[in-house]
Amino acid sequence: MLRALYAGAATIATPGLRLMLAGRARRGKEVAARLPERRGIDGTARPPGRLLWLHAASVGETVSVLPVLAALAQSSPEVTVLMTTGTVTSATLLARRLPELGLQARVLHRFVPLDVPAWTARFLDHWRPDAAAFVESEIWPNLLTGCRRRGIPTMLVNARLSARSFARWRRLPRLAQALFGSFDRLQAQSDGDAERLRALGAPPSLLTGNLKFAADPLPADAAELAQLRRLVAGRPVWLAASTHPGEEAALLEAHSMLARRHQRLLTIVVPRHPERGRDIAARAGSLAVARRSAGEGPPAGEGLWIADTLGELGLFYRLVGHAFVGRSLGEHGGQNPLEPARLGCAVAVGPNVENFRDPVAILEAAGALARVADVASLVDWVDRMLQDPARRASMGEAGMAASRRYADLPARVAAAVAELLPAGAGS
């Protein structure tokens, strides 16, 4: 039924999708040499033995399941994992993190095919996974239908469904039942997520808890951290992390206000998408600006340092000790505040944190996180952090304690996923 629903539209759209992929490759949003993977084409042979397919959308979801991959390697050493993602940044992250975790021989990364019937069928027929797990809210009709048609058991891992999304799905009850009801197992981030998903037809949640609480601390190069600490020693520094378009103007305004109170102020901005570094620099006007991707260190005097590199958030969270986490000043729903909290950072977020409501509430209740409504309140918070190191340290310690919840969750999720694999499966 679902295949028929999507086949006509996908067939008409296929030439346009090819052009879209080519355009994304020109803009650096796809890897040109790997575009066939997005159409389900892959000349790599399927590895022998049992194969688990694990799909995550992008960097945040990928980071959250790295401890699950490590736990699987310990508990099910005979299983190979086919890990798919949809972004270049997630592929780059995995290329670095898998060797660091010693998983490069156990986990094979591929880009997920677009949800076109012929492309998803080609992907599934080539890889023949023995089980599949989708992370958070990755609900793709043709991929799920293809799994069900082939008898591939599926699980939704670290599942989340906001009240807004729930209301939208309620308008399509038959489609929701067909999609969410196709999962054999469910592990939800919270009781609320589990209840909403169950109301749409998903199975009851066998585990509840947010894997983002159990993720390993973001890595950092110790020698580089020591060097940066020498460079910024003795001057006021604050960090705006994972920022999105539209937020940097407010951050530049905050810098201007704070610079009147703190001489030689350094504002470090880490854009969520590093390729935006040049554009952010162009909008800084007469302010002294340096870009890390260009090999530039922080300005010697008051100014802005744009850390437009990939995979270095752990370095800057450790360097500064307090951070505003972006994508929360606009209408985007926030980024993960647990990453800085896990490293002992005091955290501030804007008013829109719908995507991370539970983690924000837990950190706020622990005294580890502050909400800022606008530029003025952000300036006041940063000023307090710069003038009161003891308070900053107290918030950081509270964040580390709160973020240690669910420490055993990755191992329990790994066990649940492994149980999906039929005995003696694989070819």
Automatic annotation (TrEMBL):
Gene Ontology cellular component terms for the protein in this record: plasma membrane
Q: Name one Pfam family in it.
A: Glycos_transf_N
Q: Which reaction does it catalyse?
A: lipid IVA (E. coli) + CMP-3-deoxy-beta-D-manno-octulosonate = alpha-Kdo-(2->6)-lipid IVA (E. coli) + CMP + H(+)
UniProt-annotated site: Transition state stabilizer, residues: 136, 212
Q: Where in the cell is it found?
A: Cell membrane
Similarity-based family: Belongs to the glycosyltransferase group 1 family.
Q: What is this protein called?
A: 3-deoxy-D-manno-octulosonic acid transferase
